[in-house]
Amino acid sequence: MSAEDALNRAEHLLGRLEAARARLEATEHPDEAIDVLQELAALAKEVEVELQRARAAAEADAAGA
User: Fold this and answer.
1) Is residue 24 a contact partner of residue 33, using CB atoms and an 8 Å limit?
2) Could you tell me the pTM of the whole model?
3) What ranges make up the beta strands (E) of the chain?
4) How many domains does the chain have?
5) Which domain range does residue 8 map to?
6) What are 26-38's pLDDT values in tens digits?
7) How far apart (Å, rounded) are the C-alpha atoms in residues 24 and 15?
């Protein structure tokens, strides 16, 4: 996976994260809030993984140049 692909995936995930955050702000139900918080945590982890992939790919490209 290229750095650009990983960054594009991270941007997509950030969009999903933002939508989940908006749902969290809009809910008044504790159970739904817990579900959304769990989703936010999972999305944040996925974003971190993609950013690490992008960093590794960029470093590999720089080392090969």
Assistant:
1) yes
2) 0.81
3) none
4) 1
5) 3-64
6) 999 999 999 999 9
7) 14
